[in-house]
Specification:
Length: 135
């Protein structure tokens, strides 16, 4: 069974996660330093996440705005959940082909710190949204 019952729930969790990232001193600093625009295409359920780190706080959008991203990433919601819980290693998922990217591998590697910061906050966000924690 999928971790997220629908796109609305996934969107709510991601919005809260990025709100907390933006409000945690230093959490998004490395991402902002890289001045990147990233498009995340999440499947099962489907959700688009646009991350614009050209300024602080990182701007989050849920629909494409026509700006070409520096990096586009496609992955399943359950895989993202595992990465953010720390039960799946980002590197293993990437090199195992579970994460599809368009853009430079070097740009993809620049996201590692953002994911590490998100891992610290995600379990509480997931729990605070009233979702089960046995996934």
């Amino acid at each position: 069974m999928a971790v997220y019952p629908d796109s609305k729930t996934l969107k709510s969790v991601m919005a809260e996660l990025f709100d907390r990232l933006n409000n945690t001193p230093g959490a998004a600093d490395d991402f902002v330093k890289n001045n990147m625009i990233v498009s995340l295409y999440i499947d099962d359920p489907k959700l688009f996440l646009g991350l614009d780190a050209r300024q602080k706080p990182v701007k989050l959008s849920f629909s494409p705005d026509g700006v070409k991203p520096d990096l586009a990433i496609r992955l399943d919601a359950d895989l993202l959940h595992g990465i953010l819980l720390g039960t799946v290693r980002l590197r293993d998922a990437y090199f195992g082909g579970q994460i599809k990217t368009k853009g430079s591998i070097f740009k993809a590697m620049k996201l590692a710190d953002l994911f590490r910061q998100a891992e610290k906050l995600y379990p509480d966000v997931f729990k605070d949204q009233g979702l089960l924690t046995d996934h």
